[in-house]
Amino acid sequence: MSSENHQKLYFPERAQVACSECTLGNLCLPRSLDANDKQQFEHIVNKSRAIQPGEHIFRAGDKLNCIAAVRAGCFKSYVIDQNGEEQVLGFYLPGEIIGFDAIHEKVHNANVVALDTSSVCGLSFSSVSEMARQLPDLQEELFRVMSSQIAELEANAADLSAEERIARLLCSLSSRFANRGYSHTEFNLSMSRRDIASHLRLATETISRVLARFQSAGIIKVNRKKVSILDVDRLGELARRDTC
Amino acid sequence: MSTSKSFPTELITKYGLAGPRYTSYPTALQFHEGFDAEAYRRHVQRSNDDLIPLPLSLYVHLPFCETLCYYCACNKKVTRNSTLTDSYLQSLDREIEMQGELFDRDRQVIQLHFGGGTPTYYDDLQLKHIIEKLSERFFLSRSSAREFSIEIDPRTVNEDRIAYLADIGLNRVSMGIQDFDPAVQKAVNRIQDEDKTLGLIQAARKAGFNSVSVDLIYGLPLQTAKSFETTIDSILTVRPDRLSVYNYAHLPHLFRSQRMINTDDVPSAEVRLELLASTTSKLVDAGYVYIGMDHFALPDDELSVAMRDGSLQRNFQGYSTCRATDLVGLGVSAIGKVGNSFVQNQKDIRDWQALISEDKLPVWRGIALSGEDRLRRETILAIMCQGALNFREIEQEFGIDFTNHFALELESLKPLRDDGLIELSEESLEVTPVGLLLLRVIAMKFDEYLITGNSSKAYSKVI
Prior knowledge:
A: 11 strands, B: Arc Repressor Mutant, subunit A, pyruvate-formate lyase- activating enzyme, 2 domains, three-stranded antiparallel β-sheet, 20 strands, 20% strand
């Protein structure tokens, strides 16, 4: 399927999106815009249909038309390495922006697949970029989001123990869920342990072993894919972060 | 447990209904063919995806027997045709390969059980081959805490074989005895020497099996309370760690081989009760703990310890102390339990082999549990294993209001409370020592499929 058709599939029509009424209004790109600017922004937003688990919204090599803001569900981005192995780059929750990696070569580098029943808002990149030139608040927000993504990647690239990596991921997810108004101590993960392992560059069994260790130390409780954080402070210490 | 003092004959007569044994909930009667190999694969994948996947149990069904025991209701085939039994092993190898593919390699097998049929129908090398094949395709635990067990028909082994079974890694054994009375043995077509059997139990101890269990059956033709007591006395001389005393369910309309038993020889309800009462009190007096559902164990056996500390589990073999596992069923008619699903293999050997020969998983049927099924499974398991139900714990786990959700069930439990089977409070249900003998009756009150009116004819009598 050509990338044009591919993207049409998910961003089919201009839907009535009211960013001002969106529950993610405080997290998403237009959050710092005033009412007028927000209305203008709504014109460049295309709402997707429901995306089923396993469906891709971007494929590596797709031309850059859109970037996407997650409305609901969860996505992972990944590349296939020379050995044919999947390498998970990141996970995206509602309000987070997917596709910034495509800006410099105008081509998406990563595959992006839904892990849950999900939906996104497609944003024509040329329009976003055009609009950012007129709206400094939007431009600043774009820089901020890109920067936080880079920081997250850099943090992961550091030389960390398995415990630290896993504790950091849990802390990161905890605060991201909290920002979305969900519990920061109890959440269901959409990703498999294999995805987490690939993302953290650890062996699959290490994920389970370390989580089991955290569990018997009374720091977390795990039931299938549900995580309950019982001791926020100690998890924060393990992650070597002030807060969790 | 002080079950011996006053045996509740009247209550058992009163509640002597038909009822399932709840080795699974929902019971196998609810399995359906809509749950197919594809559904099974999905459930396995999901279980691999869990953050901390459960360790595995393997059940291997070896269905062949040399002779027919008339009482038997298991899925078995009586044959001496080695072409048939050899080709069964080849198919089993292939099934082990296919199933091994499905499960992530880091999932340790902490429990393995060979059931039958007669597993020891196969010779030493064949059994060794199966274990090697399993170890090639699954990650078998090397811990001494692993439970690797086999059902033994004492007529098929000698002391050397017992030692060999220990050498190839098995550490638990259950021996089929049923009854030592020659008249009873003749009536059920299972002639087995008493002295040899007792010698084998001692040989198993010597060989290092760390748990020896024996199976007995009451309610067999020509049994009397007195003759059965003689069997029990004889067994008590070697003090097995565990005893299972099963009730014989005479259902000749369902099990053809049972038609070989003269119905007139089958003990009356009164005699069966007497058998149960005298056996129970004899074992309890001898120091055994009544675990529930036909099972007895020595006080220092893990099963008794687990019962005391509330960690008892229930599985298709009865009770277990293993932590929760996903169960892989291998062989004809074998049942598996993965995540929130049960799955069963084809029950006919030819159908099972035909699918395997096409490289297909030999799945016959199964069930994916609904939220309601899981809630009721948890409730029934708490009754069967802990003899107690803490309403708040169930409420927390499933987000329900217990008293509201189970209003009808709680109402229907009141007669049981009035009869002293259970104690009910705002917070909990507790099974009394008397109720322990009627666990099924209590558990049945929470069985949605019985409540909504599924046939119960197929179940064995509660006593």
